[in-house]
Amino acid sequence: ELPPSEFMQVADSTWLVLSVVSNGREAPGCQATGVTKIARSVIAPLAEHHVSVLMLSTYQTDFILVRERDLPMVIHTLAGEFDIYKEEGGECVPVTCDDVSNGFLKPKPAAGPTLHPVQSPQTRFCVLTVAPDTLPAIATMLIDVLFYSHSPPWDAATGSQDLDSITFFSFSLIEGYISIVMDAETQKRFPSDLLLTSSTGELWRMVRIGGQPLGFDECGIVAQIAEPLAAADISAYYISTFNFDHALVPEEGIAEVIQLLQQRQESSR
């Protein structure tokens, strides 16, 4: 319904959402899986079969977006380990490989995926939610932060922001559940009694993947981060955006994360 505009870029592909749940149930209000827990069973196999994904972690759970044209390969890849269902008329209907066989399966790529550089700003972030009925109370502040707050200056020479003061704000509303990621300084602008966080109230640090916009065709970007963190049992909150990918890790673990990713970079050379 949005009018065409020279200012709006739209990716060519249509994407479908995969939600991974345990025992067929997903309890609202708690993180069901976590990007590192599905790294080996979902993210790595899809990367090996040359399926590009977008990852969206929320306060409640994690979603994997795949291109609609890749659905046959997705189901072929995951059917051995998961029961797969599609939603039809509000009901979950089992899916089999035979339901989506509309062409040959792509072979695995011969070469390994590109390992992109990672950068870690000094900014500390909060992962929050808001009760839907209290959203109007912070609507004005949300609009101000989203559309009128000043971002750090863009460096034309390097084509990037100053990563020591990166601005990142994420708001998602999915099936009535709200999820927000904001830096700790921005959080102070909101009424503290309306923002809900985990009982530990931990702060997070960011690892941003890619020195230049990543595009949508490359595979293995999420796996580059998720696999080593899963091996080290480090939790991560992952958000793919139009240009870059971002992983949030607990603040106390950032040094270990950077070391792990640097070691992976060096071993690939």
From TrEMBL:
Start and end residues of each Cytosolic arginine sensor for mTORC1 subunit 1/2 ACT-like domain: 116-199
Superkingdom field: Eukaryota
GO BP terms: negative regulation of TORC1 signaling
Record's subunit section: Forms homodimers and heterodimers with CASTOR2. Interacts with the GATOR2 complex which is composed of MIOS, SEC13, SEH1L, WDR24 and WDR59; the interaction is negatively regulated by arginine. Interacts with TM4SF5; the interaction is positively regulated by leucine and is negatively regulated by arginine.
Homology family: Belongs to the GATS family.
UniProt function note: Functions as an intracellular arginine sensor within the amino acid-sensing branch of the TORC1 signaling pathway. As a homodimer or a heterodimer with CASTOR2, binds and inhibits the GATOR subcomplex GATOR2 and thereby mTORC1. Binding of arginine to CASTOR1 allosterically disrupts the interaction of CASTOR1-containing dimers with GATOR2 which can in turn activate mTORC1 and the TORC1 signaling pathway.
Protein name: Cytosolic arginine sensor for mTORC1 subunit 1
Organism: Edolisoma coerulescens
Gene: Castor1
